[in-house]
Structure formats: structure tokens, C-alpha cells
């Protein structure tokens, strides 16, 4: 069953990933790069600080962080 992802901003996504152990390590323009401080084997996440993240990008961020919905 496909779940519909919520519409969230880049800032909300960043705050959510920070709650689970990611830390902002670099900012370039409107994009922030986060790295998992608990498990360094996870891919770094690059999140644009936009008002709305597209569902495909949000799905990719969830997949790259090894989270499940």
C-alpha cells in the first residue's frame, strides 16, 4: 500500500532529521548538508531550504537515511 507523504518544508525536514541524530555540517546557498552523527555509514543528506519539498525528494531522503514509513 502506498502512503501519501505529507507536504512539508525543507526547514521542517531538517529539524526532523536533527531529532533522530543528524547534524548540519555545511550550508551552501539555500541547501544544507546533514550527516548522521550516530551511524557514519549513512549517506549524507542534502536538503534544500524551500517552502515545499517535492514528494520524490522526501521519499529519497527517507530511503537514504534508512528510515521506513
UniProtKB/TrEMBL annotation:
The keyword Membrane does not apply. Coiled coil: none annotated. The keyword Cell cycle does not apply. InterPro entries: HicA_mRNA_interferase (IPR012933), HicA_sf (IPR038570). One of its GO terms (molecular function) is mRNA binding. It holds the Pfam family HicA_toxin. Keywords: Endonuclease, Hydrolase, Nuclease, RNA-binding, Stress response, Toxin-antitoxin system. This is Addiction module toxin, HicA family. It comes from marine sediment metagenome. The lineage of its organism: unclassified sequences, metagenomes, ecological metagenomes.
Amino acid at each position: 500500500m502506498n502512503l501519501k507523504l505529507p507536504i512539508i518544508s525543507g526547514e521542517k525536514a531538517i529539524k526532523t532529521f536533527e531529532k533522530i541524530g543528524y547534524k548540519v555540517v555545511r550550508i551552501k546557498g539555500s541547501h544544507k548538508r546533514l550527516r548522521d552523527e550516530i551511524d557514519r555509514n549513512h549517506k549524507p543528506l542534502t536538503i534544500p531550504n524551500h517552502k515545499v519539498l517535492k514528494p520524490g525528494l522526501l521519499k529519497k531522503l527517507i530511503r537514504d537515511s534508512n528510515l521506513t514509513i
